[in-house]
Design goal:
The complex is a heterodimer.
Chain A lengths: L6 E11 L5 E11 L3 E6 L5 H8 L7 E6 L2 E2 L2 H4 L4 H8 E4 L3 H4 L5 H11 L4 H14 L15 H13 L5 E5 L7 H16 L3 E6 L5 H4 L2 E5 L5 E6 H6 L1 H6 L4 E7 L2 E9 L7 E2 L1
Helix pairs in contact in A: 5-6, 5-7
Chain B lengths: L31 H17 L10 H4 L2 H17 L3 H17 L4 H22 L9 E6 L5 E4 H26 L3 H10 L4 H30 L7 H32 L13
Antiparallel strand pairs in B: 1-2
Classes of the chains: A alpha/beta, B mainly alpha.
């Protein structure tokens, strides 16, 4: 079995509800291959962020299964040897809220957090911290406190803190949300290079304008919390009816001179109102 | 294209994942502190939530919030005055009956027995010892001079205190679980509580949610990056770091809320739209 065709994650008939709430996911099934770049897209509240938490073994399904490299991802397995430590080393999660992820007093401590748990030698950890800071162009932030950083810097530090153990899978929750164009561009470049190096990257996003930069394939979650489509990104972006039905674009009335008409459109980002027809 | 360090390039092969799932001598050991951190945030959210229970067709839900506020407050004061364990148990029984009549889930009241001892342990633990409450020794902790024993009178004092806390918290929970916050705040104003206290309570109720979820987020983010279960000492250090992080965020949030108030014209004088 070649590395490219191996199934990394296999999700079958997955349903999940937060305690006392309506289901966030219903009968979700899909596979993600090793080295693939997949986006989970859907409107707010469709369950894409919850799905990432389930793939990271932070929440566990009410029904259905998730396997990683054929190992069932259960609470018991994730907490025990031999799967637990390997799983946490191989799968990194970039949270949407960087403030939640950055809990150490300095950037350097953040980057050392995971390697220290593997009890690696100090020199090895030092080397990895330096390499990662350099890669993400944040060497100057090494001694800063995370709370004093800008949103873009926090996001890069959060990514760096995940990369120091060398994961083979990255789970990204709205990685570009709220970033300025330069920070966004740097992050997209880094993610692309990591993918070229062989990393499996799974991104939850609702920013269609950046979708083709983030993924080759998209799994679309509808507002009914079921999978509405699973196809190459280019096919998804050309399927206007699908995007309208899952509330990722909306019909918009506006005027061109004296003519008022209505048609679907999408926003380039949350920050502006540029749109394409 | 950036130069990705060699060690960062995924080198995992399918062979690396070929191992038996769980060996018999490697049972899952879900860290107690790890679980407790997340459970506490969820418990707090659960206890604060009145969205579902306040709209149920129950006995307390039908009462005017002012009547409810006065009568339940009177019961709380009564509970603090009783010294007899039997009398306290009777008031607690009243709170259970009221909960049943108001369709409040039993688990909501049961949770109090998890939370109340946690907060009152600092008082309850020393009170069982002969150093604080002299009495007949029930259990000897240290026989040499000075002897440290658990006394029968100390156990009675601790039991009375625990029952009193649980009764008072249960009655307060009945009030918040059967009344929507905005109606409760209006009732407080109607009974003459100064507007500034009511507004502080309202803000506290609003932001306690935010902080409970912030605590949960920090907890989940830490679990996500935890490769192995740490020792007790490491877990304790993490809890302390998490509390520090939450404290910093509380302070930042407090400053932001205050600035947001100033930007909308706040000058130190509080006005409410729905006073009564």
């Amino acid at each position: 079995m070649s590395a490219e065709t191996s199934t990394m994650f296999s999700v079958r008939d997955l349903s999940f509800a937060y305690p006392g709430e309506k289901p966030s996911l219903r009968d979700v099934s899909f596979d993600i291959g090793m080295g693939e770049r997949v986006a989970l897209i859907g409107a707010n509240g469709s369950g894409k962020s919850t799905l990432l938490h389930l793939l990271d073994g932070l929440y566990f399904a009410d029904s259905g299964t998730i396997t990683i490299m054929d190992h069932p991802l259960t609470e018991e397995a994730v907490e025990a040897l031999p799967l637990g430590p390997r799983f946490r080393k191989e799968v990194g999660f970039l949270f949407q809220n960087s403030d939640a992820q950055l809990f150490c007093p300095t950037v350097e401590e953040e980057l050392a957090f995971a390697p220290l748990q593997l009890k690696w030698p100090r020199e090895e950890i030092e080397q990895r911290i330096s390499d990662t800071l350099e890669l993400l162009e944040i060497t100057h932030l090494r001694d800063r406190t995370p709370q004093a950083l800008s949103s873009g810097e926090k996001k890069r530090v959060a990514l760096a803190s995940v990369l120091t153990v060398g994961p083979s899978v990255l789970l990204l929750d709205e990685p570009t949300a709220g970033l300025d164009p330069r920070s966004q561009s740097i992050l997209l470049e880094i993610l692309y290079d990591l993918h070229r190096a062989g990393m499996t990257i799974i991104t939850a996003t609702h920013e269609l304008g950046l979708l083709s930069h983030l993924a080759d394939r998209a799994v679309v979650l509808g507002e009914d919390h079921r999978i509405a489509a699973d196809a190459p990104v280019s096919d998804i972006l050309h399927n206007t009816d699908l995007l309208l039905s899952v509330n990722l674009i909306h019909a918009h009335s506006h005027s061109h001179g004296d003519v008022i008409h209505s048609h679907p459109h999408e926003h380039e980002s949350l920050l502006d109102h540029d749109h394409r027809h | 294209m950036r130069k990705i360090p060699q060690w960062m390039r995924p080198s995992t092969t399918t062979e690396d994942w070929r191992f038996s799932p769980l060996s018999a001598n490697c049972k899952a050991r879900i860290g107690a502190t790890r679980r407790a951190g997340g459970a506490f945030a969820r418990l707090l959210s659960d206890m604060l939530s009145s969205e579902e229970t306040a709209s149920l067709p129950g006995f307390l839900q039908r009462l005017d919030p002012r009547v409810k506020l006065i009568s339940l407050s009177a019961l709380i004061v009564t509970a603090t005055l009783f010294r007899s364990i039997g009398a306290l148990a009777a008031v607690y029984a009243v709170s259970v009956i009221l909960a049943a009549l108001s369709r409040i889930p039993v688990r909501r009241l049961a949770h109090i027995w998890l939370i109340a001892p946690l907060f009152s342990a600092a008082i309850l633990v020393p009170s069982v010892l002969n150093l604080v409450t002299p009495g007949h020794p029930v259990f000897v902790l240290r026989s040499s001079n000075p002897a440290v024993t658990v006394t029968d009178a100390g156990l009675v004092v601790a039991a009375r205190a625990a029952l009193r806390v649980a009764t008072c918290v249960s009655l307060a929970l009945l009030l918040t679980a059967t009344t929507r916050p905005e109606r409760l705040f209006r009732a407080l104003r109607a009974l003459g509580v100064p507007v500034v206290f009511v507004m502080l309570l309202a803000m506290m109720e609003r932001y306690l949610w935010v902080l409970a979820w912030a605590a949960e987020e920090i907890h989940v983010a830490k679990v996500s990056r935890s490769i192995s279960n740490g020792s007790i000492r490491e877990e304790q250090a993490w809890v302390a770091a998490g509390m520090g992080s939450l404290f910093r965020r509380t302070r930042t949030l407090g400053q932001e809320v205050y600035l947001a108030m100033i930007s909308r014209g706040y000058t130190g004088e509080v006005h409410l739209f729905n006073e009564r």
